[in-house]
Amino acid sequence: MKYIIGNWKSNKNLLETRDWFAKFTNIYSRQKDTISTANLTLVICPPFVLLPLAKELRDKYGLPLGLGVQNISPFAEGAFTGEVTAGMAKEFAQYAIIGHSERREKFGETDNILSDKAKRAKSAGLITVFCIPGPETPVPNEADIVAYEPVWAIGTGKTESPQKAGEVAEYIKKKNPGKSVIYGGSVKAENANSFLSFGSIDGVLPGGSSLDPQSFFDIVSNASSF
Ligand code: PGA
To answer: Is the CB of 165 inside a 6 Å radius of any atom of ligand 1?
Structure first.
């Protein structure tokens, strides 16, 4: 089983979300007989405010897509202005990205805060996609999927070499037994398979190329041989 988890980051509005789902549905329904998604788990992570619409459209079009959030509160519900709890997220999503390097760098999220977030996600029943910038970054026990994302490869068009990513994935698995490991950083249709073909790499986390429904579909279509 391989994961393809699209991270929309802070992009799209209601109209653009409708457009993405309409186009993806159109492409998918025309080509679904030529691809096999039996061994793939597909997930899209839109911003919080777009999740209800994404869920509605996913259900309406009957798409084989899981939904995820890009962040959650490290606290339970209560007086925490501006925060969305894991329990709230769970009403719309099955997955939670935690510890993305943009959160670590731009929002000051520390290993301790991220460990609290992973606990909240776990207890709400979310599958945690825990991002780490390097193989030595601590991974909480509660994490389900570890996303290895070298910072220099994010949004730059430069990827880690698949060979190196495969070795790092193996190392992360040895350090954190039982966890799936995926790769992120400038993944697109043209290079996704070079990562997915490593047994130690359980999936990919495309950011920029998940924003376009055709690009996201092309990753899925190229990956469907696994
Ligand atoms: P990118 O982003 O594919 O645009 O490099 C990946 C990520 O940050 O999750």
So the answer is: no
DSSP state letter for 110: -
Q: What letters, b where the CB count within 10 A reaches 16 and e where it falls short, cover 199-217? A: ebbbbbbbbbbbbebebbb
The closest residue, in CA terms, to atom 2 on ligand 1 is 207
187: closest CA among 162, 161, 207, 213? 207
Rg (CA), the chain: 16
Of the listed 102, 109, 142, 149, which one is catalytic?
Answer: 149
- pLDDT-based confidence at residue 38 (cuts at 50, 70, 90): confident
Measuring CA to CA, how many Å separate 121 from each of 69, 100, 221? 10, 15, 30
- Rounded Cα–Cα distance for residues 85 and 90 (Å): 9
100 is catalytic: yes
Name the pTM for this structure. 0.97
- Distance (Å, rounded) from C-alpha 76 to C-alpha 98? 16
In the structure encoding, which two tokens stand for residue 11, read together? 């992009």
Ligand 1 within 6 A of 203 CB?
no
Matching residue, tokens 């501006």 = 82
pLDDT in tens, 115-151: 999 999 999 999 999 999 999 999 999 999 999 999 9
Is 83 annotated in the active site? no
